[in-house]
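From the methods appendix. Each design record in this collection lists the tokenized structure first, followed by the designed amino acid sequence. Records were kept in a plain field format so they could be parsed without special tools. The example shown here is representative of the layout used throughout.

RECORD:
FOLD TOKENS (351 positions):
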């Protein structure tokens, strides 16, 4: 039996081959037991807890650590054998590629988990996830680029010259693409500072609309007229933005004018009339109504009230109802609205 085990094939004895196969079989059996019993229980426990960290750990074990252990078993089995130099070199190259790929995937998973946890703090999780698409793509590109450089360096490729060239070229590109880089940094400002989010109604200068998409370079807004407005991210971060989505209630100020021929008694009753009308309008909260000023052709009254909520259509419906009721009330009381008029007084002298 010993003579049989000592027989050599391709510079390795049968005993060495058996040891290699035994390591693989025992390792695979143990890992199979771990996956089917222990890992399954860990998944059930993690699913019951409110935290996400344990879910991440289970995912890392299943997607990264287990493949790493399988690969370690394969390398351990091959270490027992005497392999040709070209085969050993091929295994080293494959190991470097595999480990780089696995570690890169782990880093990307950790970063994505951190971003996902960050979005969970917001009430608008779905909208935040849409906004994450751009930043995820950018992070994945950067991480994979660094991983490729690291891999080439470990494989013996001299990349110092390439990196130096890229550095000089990068400076030239940065100078030529200052606007693009500015928009990119502004994208990060919008993402982390959250001056607005997808679905918010914003006003920028004389432009207004609902935010549809926040990209790495531009933000797209659907205007009230239906057309799409495209803003550079830098323009938005450098502008004063009115975000009506954050408004809990709307303050409304309006003025009306009545003619000078209105009696003093009726002038005194106008604020109480307006107060009664606004107080009886659902969704409106009266603040004040006062005689504000004497104009060139009218006496002005200024009224302030609040509308619950931020919906523009709701505000317009409430204001329309109040305006019509005021018009109807003034018509009943014989109070006339003022409009620009001129009265010409003629003094006729006797000859």
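DESIGN:
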């Amino acid at each position: 039996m010993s003579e049989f085990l000592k027989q050599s094939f391709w510079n390795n004895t049968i005993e060495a081959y058996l040891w290699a196969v035994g390591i693989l079989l025992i390792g695979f059996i143990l890992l199979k037991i771990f996956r089917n019993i222990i890992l399954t229980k860990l998944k059930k426990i993690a699913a019951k807890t409110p935290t996400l960290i344990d879910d991440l750990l289970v995912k890392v074990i299943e997607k990264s650590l287990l493949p790493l252990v399988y690969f370690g078993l394969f390398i351990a089995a091959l270490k027992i054998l005497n392999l040709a130099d070209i085969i050993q070199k091929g295994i080293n190259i494959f190991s470097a590629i595999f480990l780089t790929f696995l570690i890169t995937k782990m880093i990307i998973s950790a970063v994505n988990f951190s971003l996902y946890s960050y979005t969970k703090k917001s009430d608008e999780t779905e909208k935040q996830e849409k906004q994450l698409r751009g930043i995820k793509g950018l992070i994945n590109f950067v991480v994979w680029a660094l991983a490729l450089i690291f891999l080439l360096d470990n494989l013996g490729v001299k990349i110092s010259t390439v990196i130096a060239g890229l550095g000089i070229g990068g400076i030239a590109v940065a100078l030529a693409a200052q606007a693009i880089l500015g928009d990119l940094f502004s994208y990060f400002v919008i993402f982390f500072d959250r001056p607005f989010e997808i679905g918010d109604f914003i006003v920028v200068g004389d432009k207004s609309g609902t935010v549809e998409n926040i990209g790495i370079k531009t933000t797209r807004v659907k205007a009230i007229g239906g057309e799409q407005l495209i803003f550079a991210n830098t323009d938005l971060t450098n502008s004063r933005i009115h975000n009506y989505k954050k408004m809990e209630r709307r303050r409304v100020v309006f003025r009306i004018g009545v003619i000078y021929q209105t009696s003093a008694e009726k002038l005194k009753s106008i604020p109480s009339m307006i107060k009664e009308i606004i107080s009886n309008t659902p969704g409106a909260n009266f603040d004040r109504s006062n005689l504000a000023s004497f104009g060139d052709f009218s006496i002005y009254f200024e009224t302030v009230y609040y509308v619950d909520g931020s919906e523009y259509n709701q505000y317009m419906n409430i204001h329309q109802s109040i305006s019509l009721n005021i018009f109807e009330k003034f018509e009943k009381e014989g109070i006339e609205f003022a409009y620009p008029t001129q009265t010409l007084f003629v003094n006729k002298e006797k000859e």
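APPENDIX NOTE: The chain has a mean pLDDT of 80.
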